[in-house]
Design goal:
The complex is a heterodimer of chains A (137) and B (287). Chain A is of the alpha/beta class and 137 residues long. Chain A is built from five helices and five strands; from the N terminus they run E-E-H-E-H-E-H-E-H-H. In chain A, a hairpin with a 2-residue loop joins strand 1 (9-12) and strand 2 (15-19). A five-stranded mixed sheet of chain B has the order 1-2-3-4-5, sandwiched between helices. Classes of the chains: A alpha/beta (137), B alpha/beta (287).
Chain lengths: 137, 287
């Protein structure tokens, strides 16, 4: 039962990608929240992308869950970007008064990835320093 | 009552050709006849068809005279069609109703020579023609209302074009008063275009919006918030000095939205954010 009712979390370098393609029920959403928290701490991910382009509708519970995930991720030092929200869903959320404060959004996964911290910023810096050092000698 | 109707039926059947000829003549002689909008032959065909349907209805409904009865369906259908075509051609309600009312004179003329209680017969005929005439007017009004409703819908559709300004930048020039129904359409088409064009920036230009009250501001903010949820930033431009004052006096909070006074400023900001720069060519500046 657990296999079927869980949403897969994919590791993409330093990022975690969650693509929600089915309409979630509440228990599924709670399970996702738990899984994601654990995966962020295990992998040390710096960013989380949540793709909701497959969602036809969102109720207040799922809306809250998205806000909560962003909050949890922030505590664990990871940025969250929600991508691909459909127009209908956006209108529904606004009508419900859920404006998801504190959640960053992007049109596509590509744009969302660009908003998150660069993967190997620290290592690159090291490489450059090494190169400079090498040149200096 | 039934006697009067049967006399009318007799006349309609027996002296149909005379009645038709006299009726068409009466219609053409009526004051304000629109021969510019309808030809005589067309009028004759319409009148002929109507008389045929009328004879059928009168003979089927020999007891009562309720033109809403299913037996009068054919007559009513014909009057509805006639009213609709005349309404679209530009006939006035009076000119449309005259079609039926002008039947009175030739009909009465023919009834005069019949036997029996003339007053009762005339009364039946009057009731019949008046009922049909009023129905024609109603049908005329209904078709006019239909036209108005359709135009209203078209206006809503037409007045909300979302234009692509640059790669990744769309603009929505709003013109006219914003009500809830229009805002809904505007918002939907804006969000749809944002997805289609993959635009991260949307400019809402309100130069053409005459007044901004709390409702309009709320509608605008809703659209901005919905766009943000999808991952697009909104810039509101074209805020006239008077509207800026109104916004402040009403205590509306637009602090979360980028606002610019002109569309040109908004375009510049949008291009800057998408990493573009507008540079004047040297040859042009040297003149």
């Amino acid at each position: 039962m657990d296999r079927v009712n869980r949403i897969p979390i994919l590791k993409l370098g330093h990022l975690l990608l969650v693509s929600i393609q089915v309409d979630m029920h509440d228990r599924m959403a709670l399970a996702l929240q738990e899984d994601l928290a654990e995966r962020i701490s295990v992998t040390g991910a710096r960013g989380v992308l949540i793709d909701i382009s497959g969602l036809e509708f969102i109720d207040s519970f799922i809306g809250r869950m998205l806000s909560d995930i962003a909050g949890i991720a922030r505590v664990l030092d990871a940025d969250t970007v929600v991508v691909g929200m459909r127009p209908v869903v956006a209108i529904t959320l606004v009508d419900l008064g859920l404006t998801l404060p504190g959640v960053r959004t992007a049109l596509t996964v590509e744009r969302g990835m660009a908003m998150l911290p660069a993967p190997t910023a620290v290592e690159e810096l090291d490489d450059e320093e090494e190169a400079e050092d090498a040149g200096g000698r | 009552m039934s006697e009067g109707l049967s006399v009318i039926e007799g006349v309609l059947r027996g002296q149909r050709e005379t009645l038709l000829a006299e009726w068409v003549k009466a219609q053409l002689a009526a004051p304000g006849v629109r021969t510019d909008l309808i030809s005589e032959s067309e009028l004759r065909v319409e009148s002929d068809r109507f008389l045929t349907a009328l004879v059928e209805a009168v003979s089927a409904d020999s007891n009562a005279m309720d033109i809403m009865d299913p037996r009068w369906d054919a007559v009513r259908d014909q009057l509805t069609t006639l009213s609709r075509t005349r309404a679209t051609r530009g006939f006035s309600p009076t000119e449309t109703a005259t079609f039926v009312f002008s039947l009175k004179e030739p009909l009465f003329e023919l009834l005069k020579s019949t036997e029996g209680d003339l007053v009762a017969t005339i009364w039946s005929a009057t009731q019949l023609v008046d009922g049909l005439g009023l129905y024609t007017s109603e049908a005329y009004l209904r078709s006019r209302e239909e036209v108005i409703r359709r135009q209203q819908d078209e206006l809503i559709e037409l007045s909300t074009p979302v234009v692509k300004l640059w790669q990744g930048v769309v603009a929505l020039p709003l013109i006219g008063t914003l009500d809830s129904a229009r805002t809904q359409v505007v918002m939907e088409s804006l969000l749809q275009r944002i997805v289609e064009t993959d635009s991260a920036i949307a400019i809402i230009d309100i130069t053409g919006v005459p007044t901004v009250d709390t409702m309009v501001a709320q509608h605008l903010l809703k659209a901005v918030t919905a766009a943000r949820l999808m991952g697009a930033d909104c810039i509101i431009s074209g805020i006239r000095p008077l509207i800026a004052q109104t916004i402040v006096h009403l205590g509306l909070d637009l602090s979360e939205v980028t606002t610019k006074s002109s569309l040109a400023d908004a375009v510049t900001v949008a291009l800057e954010r998408t990493g573009h720069q507008i540079v004047r060519r040297k040859s042009a500046s040297a003149e």
